[in-house]
Amino acid sequence: MERFSKEQEDALQLLSSLRELEFWGFEGLQQLPARLHNLTSLKILSVCSCPAILSLPNDALPNSLEKLHVYNCSEELKQQCRGLEGTIPRVKIQ
Fold it and tell me: Which InterPro entries match (predicted)?
């Protein structure tokens, strides 16, 4: 899977009370779903073992985000996430 379909992204938006979201082992996934910033209850976002993702969504992340965990991902994604240190209370990159 390289991308989420429009239907999948629309379904994600219906989860308005979602507090934690984890993407794990999507080796072919090239981008995270757009409109993550609309998930206004999201506190924790984890992206693990997703080496093809090179950046965060263009629309940014929700202001409610308290923890961002990035493990075993591309250097480009890690670098972008390092730039968020100080704007998100807990950023952990490995």
Answer: LRR_dom_sf
Distance, CA of 68 to chain centre? 8
pLDDT tens digits, one per residue of 59-94: 889 999 999 999 999 999 999 999 999 999 999 999
Q: Which two tokens stand for residue 3?
A: 């991308």
- Over residues 15-56, the pLDDT tens digits come to 989 999 999 999 999 999 989 999 999 999 999 999 999 999
